[in-house]
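Structure ticket #2291
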Amino acid sequence: MPYGCLLKFEIEVKLRLPKDFSEIRKQLHRLGFRIHKRRAFESNILFDDAKRRLRKHGKLLRVRRSGRRGLLTLKGPSEQSRYKKRWEMETDLPSGDLIERILVQIGYHPVFRYEKFRTEYTRGSDDGAALLDETPIGNFLELEGRPQWIERTAKLLGFSRKDYINRSYGDLYLAHCREHRTRPNDMIFKVRPRL
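Resolution: structure written out below.
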């Protein structure tokens, strides 16, 4: 494995939240969850080649920027499951701009941009995280961890398996555009909410 690169297996579900998600924050707090990473703006750019080979093989290459931090991520194909399961490799970047220029020079170009605000919650020594995402197409809670942890936590928060979403934000954005009969572009805020 390359130096500074983390390989892991991601298991998660998304849960759709109402516009006012103050109640879910209260529920998380009552269950012992605390903010692990404060609310931060994330800008994400997906890259692919001209023939969209990564997408055709179910892979994803992403550059994420959040504050001064940059992150390069490669994700593998999702396994068919009630959860979104896939391997991923990530490495921190000193400069998102430089890696974007490198990717373009080797034949990859931006194919989709999306933005969100994310707050990360954890609980004691739990092996999972609850990620509160505010996106241009609505609010979501991602539960990331082992399947048993996801099941238990979702139930404690009042969700059932029928509420599980195992699709990417890109797929959810395309469905949103079809539903609202708008032309897909990038999933970015028209007016960015304040931090």
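Closing remark: The chain has a mean pLDDT of 91.
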